User: Which sequence fits this backbone?
């Protein structure tokens, strides 16, 4: 509870700093403070990839040696507020997914802090789904895993399936998930996650995998989720998705936050950088 109090306090400070109070109260949902995330990879030693180099590594291996560190997020600080949709952009390997995992509490901070107000839910391309179970069972399991009751799942079941559009081309929802295309699976994952109002919803690339029609539908849902007082983080390599859904964007490069500002301003810089 101390964290909630602290964030409330910070909200007031920010409100003062921002001049005249905005129409809605500025309630922080996620605060990252000089956050550093380091992955430790065991058994990965430096050296050339030749067979002799590999043999040498095995023969000369020291106990406790061979730990490589990947410094994936370097001193990132920002505050996200309720009602904001925030885009996360940057090259491959720049630390976007790592940052979201840290916010979700799945990765420990090497140093610095992450405070969250409410329960963050991470909806990633790898979100857990049981491939051998039918889409139907996955909807139920996914709903229960998000904390819905059996009755709530039953109530929302049809709208989840309709939203996903899985059944538009036949009765696919009763087939095992492993028979779905990657786009179909991503759509179902998004539909399950979007069936609940989240305090903090983090979407990693999910929108980019659907077709045009589904993209439009999911962008609309992201806007609704935002209005329903949550905070949405969206990672995407599709600048249009970011433009259409987010008013604020964070740009990460090599683990560092290079720009945090209004989407149009940040994307302009980013597009200059990527040469588009
Ligand atoms: N499980 C892991 N173990 C070790 N290093 C990792 C792990 N996951 C990611 N990394 C490293 O951390 C860095 C950031 O990776 P991350 O997945 O966060 O990038 P990203 O911005 O999401 O990239 P993309 O746009 O390709 O999804 C990369 O250098 C990557 O190699
Ligand atoms: Mg990623």
Assistant:
């Amino acid at each position: 509870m101390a964290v909630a109090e602290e964030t409330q306090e910070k909200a007031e400070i920010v409100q003062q700093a921002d001049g005249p109070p905005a129409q809605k109260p500025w309630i922080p949902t996620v605060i990252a403070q000089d956050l550093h995330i380091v992955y430790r990879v065991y058994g990965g030693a430096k050296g050339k990839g030749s067979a002799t180099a590999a043999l040498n590594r095995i023969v000369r291996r020291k106990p406790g040696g061979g730990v490589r560190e990947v410094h994936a997020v370097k001193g990132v600080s920002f505050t996200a507020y309720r009602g904001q949709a925030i885009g996360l952009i940057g090259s491959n390997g720049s630390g976007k997914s790592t940052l979201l995992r840290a916010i979700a509490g799945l990765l420990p901070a090497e140093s610095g802090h992450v405070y969250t107000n409410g329960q963050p839910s991470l909806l990633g391309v790898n979100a857990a789904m049981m491939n051998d179970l039918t889409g139907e069972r996955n909807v139920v399991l996914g709903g229960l895993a998000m904390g819905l009751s059996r009755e709530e799942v039953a109530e929302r079941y049809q709208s989840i399936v309709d939203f996903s559009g899985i059944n538009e081309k036949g009765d696919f929802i009763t087939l095992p998930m492993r028979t779905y295309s990657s786009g179909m699976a991503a759509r179902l994952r998004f539909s399950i996650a979007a069936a609940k109002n989240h305090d903090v919803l983090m979407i990693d690339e999910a929108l980019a995998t659907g077709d045009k029609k589904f993209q439009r539908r999911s962008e609309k849902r992201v806007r609704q989720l935002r209005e329903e007082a949550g905070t949405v983080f969206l990672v995407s390599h599709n600048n249009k998705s970011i433009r259409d859904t987010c008013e604020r964007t964070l740009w990460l490069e090599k683990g560092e936050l290079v720009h945090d500002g209004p989407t149009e301003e940040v994307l302009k810089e980013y597009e200059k950088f990527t040469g588009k």
Q: What stands out?
A: The longest strand covers residues 28-42. The mean pLDDT is 84. Strands lie at 28-42, 67-81, 85-89, 111-116, 120-123, 200-204, 231-235, 248-253, 256-262. Residues 34 and 75 are 4 Å apart (CA to CA).
